[in-house]
Amino acid sequence: MTTFASGTDTLTRDALTVLQPGFTGTTAPDWLLRRLGEGLASVGLFGRNIASPEQLVALTAQLRAERDDVLVAIDEEGGDVTRLEVRAGSSFPGNHALGAVDDVELTREVAAELGRRLAACGVNLNWAPSADVNSNPANPVIGVRSFGADTALVARHTAAYVTGLQSAGVAACTKHFPGHGDTAVDSHHALPRIDADASVLAERELSPFRAAIAAGSRAVMSAHILVPSLDPDHPATLSRPVLTDLLRGELGYSGLIVTDGMEMQAIAATYGIERGSVLAIAAGADAICVGGGLADDETVRRLRDALVAAVRSGELPEARLAEAAERVRELARWTATTATTAAPAADGEARTDIGLAAARRALKASGASAFTPLTEAPFVAAFTPVANIAVGDETPWGVAAELARLLPGTETGSYSGDDAARATLEAAGDRRVVAVVRDEHRHPWMAAALDALLASRPDTIVVEMGVPQASPRGALHIATYGAARVCGRAAAEVIAGV
Length: 498
Fold this sequence. Notes:
Layout: H1 10-17, E1 19-20, H2 30-38, E2 42-45, H3 53-66, E3 71-74, H4 95-101, H5 104-120, E4 125-126, H6 151-167, E5 171-177, H7 198-203, H8 206-214, E6 219-222, H9 240-250, E7 256-258, H10 265-268, H11 273-283, E8 288-289, H12 297-313, H13 318-339, H14 354-362, E9 364-366, E10 379-383, H15 400-406, E11 411-415, H16 420-428, E12 433-437, H17 444-456, E13 461-464, E14 476-479, H18 485-496
Parallel strand pairs: 1-8, 2-3, 3-4, 4-5, 5-6, 6-7, 10-11, 10-12, 12-13, 13-14
Antiparallel strand pairs: 9-14
């Protein structure tokens, strides 16, 4: 096992142990390796840290050379939120597509294959799945990251995902407790509020988390949301009634509780990351996720010192910090043990095609009976909204790349705002238009652009790659239930008739 640096006292080690920081670069910086030697037990990876599977294997090996039981975490939901394939688009269609198919065995197989790929790269904790019930269609941050708006559907697929992921030896971290689906505010930018009664929450939001706990989810991630019926004063991440009384007490959860990113504005702009981290541990959280934006040694030092000072002042009981640190170590032990006994694929081989198969099954085409597949290269107009921070804007989406492979000469442009339709028509000329949208129902400019485009060119093909809430229209309307690369490929195959 790892030998800790001499001179690091127990309190300081525990304070480091509960942190899950990020870093920049594709190799581990010296400061991170030094902190691992001092007691840091977890590291979070983001798209900026990953260039290839081979590089990721080398990076995780570098971390384990310093601490063999390190938890290497990643935010790999598949679908729109991918870090493994941040520059190419995901090989997996994401939760909303899996919910649209509603085959729990398919969901389990997809999660198992995703888990195998993570484990092969040395990743052993995945901040997924999202168990949020997307009950508010205007939700700007969950959307296709949710299995759907039906509680029972979300619950059964959450359980299947947890089971599949953990069968590969990768710990699931079910999120965002107690449920981020009924929000109209993105917690990356501000503090959302859910005003549902406790009885509604118990039946709607909490059901998928009960299913995840029953399935053995090794970790649960808290949400930076204010739920007055549970705690009128503190967001869930900082709330003892939510984390200790509800999650631990009422739901009987005994695994690791991880916070969502502490530099998100819902916490950073209201409490600050140091104060927020102290309050989160005091409320019952066991691990502090930070590093999506603040990814340096200074951040680790600030949070470590804030926790140590809070214990020494009596604000944070030392026993609570020690308990949190022990839960981190317990999960590290589970991953070390499970990695050697993880179940192989049922057929003895990895199902590398399972993501594309799922994307094809999820796709819904309206007007297909009267549609003649294209044989000439079209013009693809991507009506592009601002990406939320969880998804990021570096991951490609759409159907243009896949259509260009099937119909060489396909061209594309990205448009937004009031001028989108006019610009599309001007660029398309006499070519057939494929309009690609994402959550048309949430963007009035997008709906108006489609109105104008279809009025001029009724033969336009419409591909909805977000939540298909708006009514289907166009000569052919394809709903992919997500914007992953495989979703684009499935749509392109229908358009080109292959």
